[in-house]
Design a protein that fits this description.
lyase activity; eight-stranded antiparallel beta sheet; calcium; alpha+beta; repeat; 5 domains; 17 helices; nine-stranded antiparallel beta sheet; Hepar_II_III_C
């Protein structure tokens, strides 16, 4: 028993010891666990008490307004635990949110694990600028980090963003930027919007291309040729291009060989004209006429487009007139108001126009709009082309978010150009008929686009179109063309066709219908002769048929551009044939050394005008433009017309390189209808010296018939002679014009033809054609005299194979303040009296406060103007 109890007791003691040890170990484990947990908590607490620091990465960033390139501003933090919101403020800058850049959220958020977050400053177009001739300046904003208990600010607390006005886009915008400029909320753009939201730009490009292929084309007035110039097309497929009459072939015969910056004959104008793509309408018309047979025509356009897009990024360092510039304002406007829009309208669903090329093309249209918006001109035909481009492109691509503003801007700019450049009488400030027509074509196209798309423009545009058509109608020659004047050469656009295009725009103008249909419908034009008092141009005509007589005199200012020194010059057509002409313009030259023929073509020596001491007029340096009202005399009736203009009365109207003023010249023209003009060049010296006074006539003839005793010349193309106007050997003898001087003592006559040395004389020019110059007779009358001198001439038009009528001039005895002529024709007499001081004259002891007095059948016609 004793043993048993002892053993039991021992066993219990051992068990208790084991249990106590286990308890002790458990307690020790619990203590250790508590210590570990406490230590972790303390460590974590210590870590949480140390703040993350944030900083801008750079002190400054640039955003570029041209290509709409955003500034990506990086903010860094020192640790990457959890998400973190960091606040900032925008201050200290002249950029305006939602005008110069997209307004900012004033906070940037780090996602869990990120150490870098970005703030995007996206530039916008600034429409606040009203003077578009002044380039926009760079603008800035400053971003500063704001203190917060959740983070510390370290190193760079503020950064500056420069919103750079870099003029225009240098490269095609990225997909991200481009699609941000599309109004994706428009109907049928849901697929594009969905792809953009998902960041899938490959899908977005395809969806947008599909949208445009399916979208109906916008109504566009036709500028596509209604005929195909097959030679132009054939040349293109031989890599031969003719621009402004000069041809060049790119070798080898591949599209890749084309250099879009090439200047044929070293002439920058060639480059600029080349980048208008004016052969595309021929290719497109050929494709339209027969798509299956002429598929290669459309393919050629696409291939050239792809080549141009890939190689024609804008170099913003180039000046507008720099050689090789594919982005001159004028060409940029032409592309998107004409050739490119024509091509896009026709080829948008062409199978070989890939989605990628189409999207790049749309990006290029957007670039053109940005460029035209920022690189503005508010004058001349260039300003019209740019305004037209802005308007047309915005109408045809309303999908661009900025299109509404661009359309408004186009209207505003065109209004400004027209208010500045179209004079009240309808003449255009460049005073060059060819550029008048070019400008009118742009304004007309602008107006037609608006009408076809049910959009309003403005009364200024509508009125200007009509007034400019009036000018075209009244200045047109009997042959249906426009006169040579300044840089305007022989116009191939027949005026009847031009006026026919105005009839649908102005159906109430029955005179337009009458002119366009040669009298078959409409109402006859009320007047035959006409004056443009603001432009300083007078037209005297016998009627409106192709066989009528016509004289044009330019007594206006120099003009804003494309001007020649041609004041008081005349052009005369007799019975529908050109006889006395302006020498015309030689092709433009842009080399370091001016072409002597180009220079000569702009001088008075190449015009049919009066001169003193062999001196050309010199107005260009004085910028004698439109600041003063043109002063011309004008009278018209059923039987006669009279006009007069003056050179030298204004102190800025000088002569020669030394810019002197030896004399005041007044040219008087009395038209005795239907076929006789009396021309008087009156010279009033401003000194007591003897001067050589001359009258020059440029004659559209091969060889003049001359009576050397009478110093009389007959301008007539005879059978078998070369016709320099039509450039053919004439098969008939044409109507003639006889120039008969009222000879003064010692008056001489000279004839020059095709002379180059010792001085250039006797040439007619036609720019931008292979027919660059043609030798013609220049007839010149000279007299050396001191004091007031008058040189009088009879210009008599005669039908072919008829003798000219007898016309006799006699100088009347008058007082010292008056010059008088008695003109005898067909047993009737008329008297022309001229004030030598252009103020007062005397006739039969009676003083007249007038420049001129005409007596017809006993009736006095008093004419007064202030030169």
């Amino acid at each position: 028993m004793f043993k048993f109890r002892l053993k039991t007791t021992t066993t219990l003691c051992i068990a208790n010891n084991i249990l106590s040890e286990a308890r002790l170990k458990f307690k020790l484990f619990l203590c250790l666990l508590l210590f570990v947990n406490y230590s972790f908590a303390q460590t974590n607490k210590a870590k949480q008490s140390v703040k993350t620091s944030v900083t801008f990465v750079q002190n400054s960033y640039n955003a570029y307004e041209g290509p709409l390139t955003p500034a990506i501003i990086n903010v860094k933090r020192s640790s990457s635990l959890g998400s973190l919101s960091v606040n900032y403020v925008v201050s200290d800058g002249d950029a305006v949110p939602d005008k110069d850049y997209v307004s900012l959220a004033n906070k940037v958020v780090f996602k869990a694990g990120e150490t870098t977050a970005s703030i995007i400053v996206q530039p916008l177009t600034d429409y606040r600028i009203k003077d578009y001739r002044k380039m926009r300046k760079d603008r800035t904003i400053k971003l500063s980090l704001v203190k917060n208990t959740n983070y510390a600010i370290n190193n760079i607390a503020s950064t500056t963003v420069n919103i750079v006005n870099d003029l225009s886009p240098k490269n095609l915008p990225s997909d991200q930027v481009f699609f941000s400029k599309i109004n994706l909320n428009l109907p049928k753009l849901e697929a594009v919007k969905s792809a953009v939201s998902a960041g899938n730009y490959i899908k977005a490009r395809k969806a947008l291309a599909t949208y445009f292929r399916q979208r109906p084309a916008k109504p566009m007035p036709s500028r596509v040729h209604n005929y195909i110039d097959q030679k132009t097309i054939d040349d293109v497929f031989n890599n031969k291009y003719t621009v402004f009459g000069v041809s060049h072939t790119f070798e080898p015969n591949t599209v890749e060989a084309i250099d879009w910056s090439f200047a044929a004959a070293g002439n920058s104008n060639w480059t600029w004209g080349f980048n208008r793509f004016e052969w595309w309408p021929h290719l497109i018309q050929g494709y339209i006429n027969n798509p299956k047979a002429n598929d290669k025509y459309a393919k050629r356009v696409v291939d050239e487009l792809e080549n141009w897009l890939s190689s024609s990024t804008l170099d913003v360092t180039k000046q507008q007139l720099e050689a090789g510039n594919r982005w001159r304002n004028l060409e940029t406007g032409f592309r998107v108001n004409s050739t490119w829009l024509i091509a896009f309208n026709t080829l948008k669903d062409y199978p070989k126009l890939s989605d990628d090329i189409m999207i790049d093309w749309l990006k290029a249209f957007y670039m053109h709009q940005r460029f035209l918006e920022e690189s503005a001109e508010l004058f001349t035909n260039r300003g019209v082309a740019q305004a037209e481009g802005l308007f047309a492109c915005s109408v045809f691509f309303p999908e661009f978010k900025e299109s509404i503003e661009w359309r408004k801007l186009g209207v505003t700019r065109l209004e400004n150009v027209l208010k500045n450049d179209v004079l009240p009488d309808g003449s255009y400030k460049e005073l060059s008929p060819g550029y008048h027509d070019l400008t009118l074509s742009g304004v007309q196209h602008f107006y037609e686009i608006a009408k076809k798309n049910n959009m309003e423009t403005s009364p200024i545009i509508v009125n200007s179109v009509q007034k400019m058509f009036d000018y075209m109608m009244y200045t047109s020659e009997p042959n249906g063309l426009m006169p040579f004047l300044n840089d305007s050469h022989r116009m191939y656009t027949l005026m009847d066709k031009r006026l026919a295009s105005a009839v649908p725009l102005f159906p109430e103008r029955k005179d337009y219908q009458w002119f366009a249909t040669h009298g078959k419908s409409g109402t006859p034009i009320k007047a035959t002769s006409w004056i443009f008092p603001d432009g300083g141009q007078a037209i005297m005509r016998s009627g409106w048929t192709k066989d009528d007589n016509y004289l044009f005199m330019d007594a206006g200012p120099f003009g804003t551009s494309h001007g020649h020194e041609d004041k008081l010059s005349i052009s005369v057509d007799g019975y529908g044939v050109r006889h006395i002409i302006d020498g015309g313009p030689h092709s433009y030259e842009n080399g370091e050394k001016q072409n002597p023929f180009r220079e000569f073509s702009t001088t008075t020596m190449s015009k049919s005008a009066p001169i003193v001491d062999n001196l050309d007029q010199h107005r260009r340096a004085e910028k004698v433009l439109m600041d003063k009202k043109t002063q011309m005399a004008w009278y018209t009736s059923n039987t006669l017309d009279y006009t007069a203009g003056v050179y030298g009365a204004d102190s800025a109207e000088t002569m020669g390189k030394e810019r002197i003023r030896p004399s005041i010249i007044t040219r008087h023209i009395l038209y005795l209808k239907p076929d006789v003009w009396i021309l008087v060049d009156a010279f009033a010296p401003l000194d007591n010296q003897s001067h050589q006074y001359s009258t020059i006539f440029q004659c559209s003839d091969d060889t003049l018939d001359v009576n050397f005793d009478l110093k009389e010349a007959i301008i007539q193309i005879k059978k078998g002679e070369f016709d320099p106007f039509n450039r053919v050997i004439s098969s008939i003898s044409q109507p003639s014009l006889t120039i008969s001087p009222l000879l003064l003592p010692n008056q001489t006559m000279q004839i020059f033809k095709g002379q180059e040395k010792p001085f250039i004389a006797g040439w007619a020019f036609e720019k931008s054609t292979s027919w660059e110059k043609q030798a013609i007779p220049m007839l010149r009358y000279n007299v050396q005299k001191s004091g007031n001198t008058q040189m009088a001439y009879v210009l008599a038009a005669t039908p072919a194979n008829q003798l000219k009528q007898a016309i006799k001039l006699n100088v009347l005895e008058t007082s010292s303040d008056t010059y008088g002529l008695k003109i005898s024709i067909d047993n009737t007499d008329k008297i022309l009296l001229l004030a030598l001081d252009n103020k007062t004259l005397t006739w039969q002891n009676k003083k007249y406060n007038a420049n001129s007095l005409i007596i017809e059948n006993g009736k006095e016609i008093i004419i007064n103007f202030k030169p």
